[in-house]
User: What shape does this take?
Amino acid sequence: MFGRPYDWDWVTVSSSGTELAAADRNGDAMTREAKLARTLVELADTLVDDFDVVELLTRLADRCVEVLDVEAAGIMLAAPDGQLRVMASSSEAMRVLELFEVQAQEGPCLDCHRTGEPVVNQDLATVNGRWPRFAPEALAAGFRSVHALPMRLRGSVIGALNLFRGGPGEMGPADIEVAQAFADVATIAILQHRAALEAHVINDQLAHALNSRVVIEQAKGMVAERLDLDMERSFTVLRNHARSHNLRLVDVAESVIGGTLGASELERASGDR
Amino acid sequence: MTGGDRRLRLLSRLQGGGDLDTQRLCDVCAEATGATGAGIMLMSGDVPRGSVCTTDAVSTLIEQLQYELGEGPCVDAYQQDRPVAEPDLAQPAIARWLGFTGPVVDAGVRAVFGFPLQVGAVRLGALNLYNDKPGPLTDDQHADALVMADIAAQALLLLQANAPPGTVAAELETNADFQFVVHQASGMVAAQLEVSVGQALIRLRAHAFGNDRTLTDVARDVVDRRLRFDAQSGEKDPAP
Assistant: This one.
């Protein structure tokens, strides 16, 4: 909405930009509910021209660590070829571990993305053979329990949100719901952004194609007049010239309109007369 | 009814007729909103490019005039990014569209409504509705029109998405009138008068205005060789 990076100091601003009230810089004065609400608003408020997927997801990861009972968070998104890519991590240790997951093709995020279902409360010390390469790496990095929530809109799973904790205890259902809500909002923002980009491209292509057609129709008229042909024959003349000279039809049309390609040359080239 | 219900109801009207085609899209726009007629105008760079579809001859006239004059409910809706309504065209509260209003009222139009076609920030054109009796759209009709405009915008993009590169999608062209006859006539007149196509178009417009005819009709006469523009003696009909 404001076209600038979010202000993460929890300063409340009015729509005119003046500061209304400042919360504690550490965020302690804000209730958890207020933080959650603010996070959801900030995540949703991404329909701006300078939408940056990496920035959005980095802030999502940081927010998860701040408001949920987890030590580290990370997000992976699927590339067009289906392979997961690490997009954002709340710490370097987390990033290394997520890269390891992708390389080993094994881990909670991968399972979650593949099934589209949440992976919750997996105690790495007791997973019993699940993730035989990932589990020891994560334990060595100081993480004990892992969770992954799908980034999903109806049938489309675009990635997953990884949450790692140091202790073995379970993440409560309220926290899991909140984490899923964060993931959902980010998913919608990303999908809408992709759709918007595509819309721009297609619209531009349509406008460009129409412009080309206008030139071609103008050239048809000009050739029809000069060679005393109907529109269909005129089109054939233009098309034959394009083919025999290995040119694009629109370029031939431009030459006719611009006066660099004369009727007599077309007449000579035409096999239809 | 909820927005989702409304959208589902309108989408189900569209289906069941085989592949989506623009004529059906237009017809449903009119049926769903109860309008006498409907049309979809394509626009880019603030300028009308032509009509994708219309349900009847009056809607065709409405679109042709907006193309020719660059003014009207669709043009305003597109440029202002919001629905535009004139519920009493014969006695409008606001005096506007001075060139457009006379001919369409003569053709029986008493109310017109324009709804922009947008997908996010992308602007494609506008949906045009008209009624042969004065009066505003009901809240329900207005809400249906908004949803149909949204559906139509996405449908246009979807149809164009599958077109071979550099071409207008065949599905978009089938029922459309992108005023190619005007461009053909411009080419012919440019050759007749030895002027640029831009100047030829100006001459065509001047002839249409001076003879109280639409640009499209004049262009059609030129292409059908009922009307020539002669450098020496001005416009003339070549055959008695």
